Amino acid sequence: MSMILYVEDEPDIAELVERKLIRLGYTVRLARNGAEAFRVVGAESPALILLDIGLGLSGPDGWEIQRLIKANPATAAIPVVALTAQSPTDEDRNRALAAGFAGHLPKPIDTPALKAVLATFAPLRDAT
Question: Using H for helix, E for strand and C for coil, what is the string for 19-37?
């Protein structure tokens, strides 16, 4: 089963998306900040990281977390998808892609768009 690291500081949003990912067949690890995210990445090597780029005031924001993940040769290959609470614009998407994110999803997360990201970066293996 593919493991997804979901980095989100808003508990209600984290719970909603975590349940959605579990229903879709994924194992999920939640991180509330950069320090937790780095611990999970180092210990478990997720198939995909869904990263809120507007994390709260404690620690680095999502842009910095992603930069540090990509700067580390041991974690650089892990795809990181930016999550934003802003309305989706081409500028937001282009900025995220230019910064090295593998993709961009606006919140609230649309299930079909999430499924497309998962199919691209963390496809589930058939049990057959």
Answer: HHHHHCCCEEEEECCHHHH
Buried b (16+ CB within 10 A) or exposed e, 41-60: beeeebbbbbbbbebeeebb
pLDDT digits (tens, 9 = 90+) for 69-125: 999 999 999 999 999 876 667 777 888 999 999 999 988 888 999 999 999 999 987
Contact 41, 73 (CB under 8 A): no
Domains and CATH numbers, the chain: 3-121 (3.40.50.2300)
Measured between alpha carbons, how far is 122 from 101 in angstroms, rounded to an integer? Answer: 15
Q: Which residues pair with 48 in a beta bridge?
A: 4
Specify the pTM: 0.91
Asked if the peptide bond before residue 112 counts as cis, ω within 30 degrees of 0, the response is no
H helix or E strand, kind and range, residue 9: none
